[in-house]
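Appendix B, example 12.
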Amino acid sequence: MKGLIAGAALALAAVFGFQSAQDDAAHSQDSRIAQGVERMDSVLQKGLSEETHDKLAKQADSSAEWLKGFSAKVQAATD
């Protein structure tokens, strides 16, 4: 009986540890993506007209929102 309780406790600890590691990795990935977008934004602002830049920025925002929603749906389906 003690082994069963210990096994269950170990399984719970592993699940919570795995979820925490996934959350940390997702946050790290978001940070790298955000930094890349900021760098690209800076380059584009210097080389494009303001109108073209604004159009691309709106499209990028739209794509990012769609991707976040898609990612959330995939995450929910795998949980």
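The chain has a mean pLDDT of 74. The first helix runs from residue 2 to 47.
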